[in-house]
Amino acid sequence: MLQAQELSVSGVITNQEGKPVNYATVLVVETKEGVATDENGQFVLEGLPNGTYMLRITRIGHKTIHKQIEVNNGVSSKLNIKLEEDETQLSEITITATRTSRAVDNVPLPVEIISEEQIEQMGSFRLNEVLMEQAGLQIVSDHGTGLQMQGLSSDYIKILIDGEPVIGRTAGTLDLSRITVNNIAQIEIIRGPSSSLYGSEAMAGVVNIITKKDKSGFDSSLRMRYRSFNTFNTSANASYSNDKLAISMFADRMSSDGYDLAEETISKTAPPYASYTFNPKISYKFSDKVNLKLNARYYTESQENTEDIALDDGTTVRVDDDAKQSDWNLMPTLNINFNNNHRLQLRNYTTGYKTEETYTYQSDGEIYDESYFEQLFNRTEAQYDWYISDKHITTLGVGHYIETVEATRYDDVNAFRANYGFVQHQWIPSAKFNVIVGGRFDTHSEYKSRFSPKIAAGYEVNDWVKIQASFGGGYKAPDFRQLLLNFTNPTVGYTVIGSSIVQERIAELEAQGLIQSYYMNPADVETIKAETSIAYNFGLKLKPISKLHIDINAFRNEISNLINSTPIALKTNGQSVYSYVNMEEVITQGVEIKADYKLLDNLNVSLGYQYLDSRDVAAVKEIQNGEVYTRDPKTNLTSLVTMADYGGLVNRSRHTGNVKVYYYNNKYDFDLSLRGIYRGKWGYGDANGNGVVDLDSEYADGYFLLNLAVNKKLFGWLTLEAGANNLLDEVSTYQPTVAGRLWYGGINLKFPNSNN
Amino acid sequence: MRNITNTFYLLLMLAISLLGFTSCDDDDEGESVVLDLVSDVHATDDSGIAYFDLEGGTTLTQADSNSTTWDIAFNGSTIMINGGTSGPGEGAAQIVEGIFETITSAPTSGYSVDSADGYAIPSGSGNGWYTYTAMTEPQHAILPIPGVVIVLKTGEGNYAKVEIISYYEGNPDTSTDEFADLSTRPSSQYYTFQYAVQTNGGIEF
């Protein structure tokens, strides 16, 4: 072929309303070469010799169309192609499941997307409020408002903002109320171990919060809301974007007077607080191939409470508790698209988390206790995606991170270093069948290297049944607390020592004459290993009729080397010395069902349910061997615990579910949502000293929350919102976030875009 | 009423276990076993300690503390055995896990005596015979750990087994609101327990 005869074919793809369609794939059937449309729906096919070609245009959520074109000498075609939307194909895009953009329907993993629209309709303020309404997700209060997924607690769930991990956990819990939902474009939830891509902590799954993208031109919005307990939330966003530059600033303030569920104590259940979030972003497109983004976040919260502290001599003192916490991050990302088939992403992520707590005597203002905790994390990562063909996508990544902690409860500044590499291959042999294989290798300065594999496959049996199955390994690294904590409780007198320093600290305590006796030989306390898991997920996606979608996912997680604290010595003051050991084996398994039915064009009903079975393998063995006893609280008679009495792990509800109704009124332009969330009874602890949940009194009562939200649009740019959370006024002392009815109301202003 | 019912249940269980014992044991060892259910053993003098003689089935006071007659003593939630630092007797004890009725013989070794380092039956929640509920319901209660049976040598050297059933007056139902409420909860330090003691010097109960 002669160069002169090769011409370019360009065109624009629009939808029925005439709006440009981005990310549509235009494939030349004969040459198998394809390109994607840009933000303006435009595409250019280069280097096509003279001839007749068939173009295949595909886009998720749209009907595939074929168009024949002719390329003649001297005539370049300018095409204008309209795509029709296809209800049955409508699918969201996930970036989290494979670290590449994929349609949720084509990823063989349990992926759930919560859209900006849904979040706005719900009227939620913070991330915990959004997640608690999703089937199979549970909010558990333990040193903060944490998440539970597939029966695994907050320690085992990685929370990401724009793909980067949020740090700052207290006793393993990452407090979700730190995260505002006002700048969220979508939340992606991947269930099942994702350590093959995300490393430690991604054992139960990953929640990725994708913040809003900038719209073109000047854009701004303001949202102000009030809720019971004098809770105010104001957020504002302003952005400017053109072909090359995008710049935006988001700010959010939230404050509350808090509430009290136990009025006999001076201390409030939820103390008053004020918090601020700032999220500036800038990105610049150097060329079609290279762009640079810089995201930052700053969060600060201060909280005040008053407490009565019991002293050894039986008297109490009243102290004021002043607690501050903050986190910040800086996230530069360089994207290089060498061509449509090769993409390189270089990211650096630096983040910090800090808490400071001061107790002062109310009587004289002197300090009773002061503590701080400061964690820093820096990660550098390169990811390379190779779109080999329609059928093969390979992703490679390498990274390095360093993490330091400095705190009152730690002796020195402690640092961890780690390196990792991951590889993933997506194979899509046909429209009906696709496979993902991947793995990640982590090396760490403090514990043994770890390989986390993953394999997943999906198959479309017919046009209404899809099956998918995945297997993966997850792990969670021992944290600073478990390795290096050196803490003696100032009021009670017990001591907790991290496993790396236990020998030397015990020797010191012994030398000081503080050890009475040993429960175990301190030399037998080994440095703890990472917790590991293997997990299976098996799912069915059914569309028996076009308006009904049913998703079923069965799961099983087997966790080994669970880290737990254990007493190792008795101190002369009668209190124990604790350290951390790898002990337990735990299994969580169950099934999750979601059904979505479009009753009318403007009325949608959905149901969700999760059945969960959780068990401690050692406890089950003891019960089966007839070694666990219980006492009937009514008769005080002793008997053996049977498997039927066994309540599994604490804080796990066997039955949870929800029912949601969404209605949109076209005539008066308002939407209404009513959501019922049920959590069945759950064991909260052991009251009779046999180490397992078996008595009725060891369960917390379940609850049913009914949430209502109404949004009324005026003038297109102003939305009035009002509603109530927990309409039935439920209160649970074992779940402090369930604290009675909350009314709210507010306005949401989206100022007309300067481009329109 | 409920307390009476509880006591009735326990007596019934004792009767059944006695019947079971006598029916399947055809030598006359059984007749040397004293089996009893004792209710509301409580300190009556200023010492705050209640002493109990298992062979005789009687509650004693501090006046008898220096004799070998008493076998087990209750001081608040602490249990003492007549031996070591607690008394002049041959007493020693250990915890055996199981259902009272199914523990049919005493171990021949593994006994500890009360000493300056600690009691044979360790004190403290979860260490010995009880658990302290703290903030779990019923709050701030002392409940006997199920499956804990104290096997001991009496002051006179006989083997005995003891199961503490209740720490509260009248052996109450601990699942009621009345028990949960600290203002209506029955008084503590009233021990209800069942025991068996072999008086012929053997280890079978």
**How much helical structure, as a percent, in the residues of chain B?**
10-25%
Global mean pLDDT of chain B: 86
So what's the overall shape of chain B?
A: globular
| Distance between the ends of chain A | 46 Å
Task: Please report which band the strand proportion of chain A falls in: under 5%, 5-15%, 15-25%, 25-35%, 35-45% or over 45%.
Answer: over 45%
Largest sheet of chain B: 5 strands, antiparallel
Roughly what is the average pLDDT of chain A, rounded to an integer?
A: 89
Q: How many distinct helices of chain B?
A: 2
Low-confidence stretches of chain B: 20-28
Biggest sheet: strand arrangement of chain B: 1-11-10-9-6
Q: What is the H level of CATH, i.e. the homologous superfamily of one domain in chain A?
A: TonB-dependent receptor, plug domain
Q: Structural class from helices and strands of chain A? A: mainly beta
Radius of gyration of chain B: 17 Å
Number of domains of chain B: 1
Rg of chain A over CA atoms, rounded to whole Å, is: 28 Å
| Uncertain stretches of 5 or more adjacent residues of chain A | none
User: CATH top level of one domain in chain A?
Assistant: Mainly Beta
Reading the helices and strands of chain B in chain order gives: HEEEEEEEEEEHE
Q: What general outline of chain A do the C-alpha atoms trace?
A: globular
Number of H/I helices of chain A: 6
Structure description:
The complex is a heterodimer of chains A (756) and B (205). Chain A is mostly beta strands. Among the domains of chain A are: 3-89, Carboxypeptidase-like, regulatory domain (Immunoglobulin-like); 93-208, TonB-dependent receptor, plug domain (Ferric Hydroxamate Uptake Protein, Chain A, domain 1, Beta Complex), CATH 2.170.130.10. In chain A, the strands form 8 sheets. Chain A has a 26-stranded mixed sheet that branches. The longest helix of chain A is centred in the last third of the chain and has 10 residues, at 502-511. Chain B has one domain (2-198). Helices cover 13% and strands 31% of the residues of chain B. Chain B has 2 helices and 11 strands; from the N terminus they run αββββββββββαβ. In chain B, the strands form 3 sheets. Chain B has a 5-stranded antiparallel sheet with strand order 1-11-10-9-6, with helices on one face. Chain B has a 4-stranded antiparallel sheet with strand order 3-2-4-5, with no helix packed on it. A two-stranded antiparallel ribbon of chain B has the order 7-8. In chain B, a hairpin with a 4-residue loop joins strand 2 and strand 3. Chain B is globular and about 45 Å long. The two termini of chain B are 32 Å apart. The chains are: A mainly beta (756), B alpha+beta (205). Chain A binds chain B through residues 516-517, 574, 627-631, 633-640, 684-690, 695-698, and chain B through 2, 5-6, 9-10, 13, 97-100, 117-118, 124-126, 130-131, 133, 136-138, 143-147, 163, 165-166, 171, 173-175, 192.
